[in-house]
Amino acid sequence: MIMLLTKNYVQGFGNVQGDHWLGLDAIHLLTHSLKTELAIKVHDNGKAYHLRVSGFKVNDASHKYQMTYDKIVGGSLSHEAFEKSKSCYFSTGDKDQDNIGDLNCADDNRGGWWYSDCGWMHLNGPWDRIKRPSWPWSPRYIGMCVFNGNFVRWLTYTEMRIRLWP
Predict the structure, then answer these.
(1) pLDDT at 19 over 80
(2) CATH topology of domain 7-164
(3) pTM, two decimal places
(4) Boundaries of every domain in the chain
(5) Which stretches make up the Fibrinogen C-terminal domain (predicted)?
(6) Among 70, 78, 69, which Cα is nearest to 27's?
């Protein structure tokens, strides 16, 4: 499995016709001086969930690409899971900026994200959930997921869109 580095997340990667990450620098440019809304859509075994967030902003590199927002506007996706990422710095496998001491959540989950801890939400992980042999005491997996209520949803599709806030 390929581990993407900070420079990949900063510059962006993928194909805009399919799997794609715009890039933290581009997201910062879009959000730092304009009022924007973030819309998240995810699929779990064919069922769709969504979330809308107003005032979404990503700071620049000097502020560790910290993510902030004004409020969650609505949606069927767990508000609590996204709230855990508010004011967090963007972490990658080679740049641990999460709130967990010795554990690098991005490395552990195989994808960069605004982690407060390792289990609430990460939309940049592997497509397929993969059994993690290092967690023998529980059926722990890695993959794109979100904690939605009382259980983790393993995602088969994620989409994040930014638009000007009306």
Answers:
(1) yes
(2) Gamma Fibrinogen; Chain A, domain 1 (3.90.215)
(3) 0.87
(4) 7-164
(5) 1-127
(6) 69
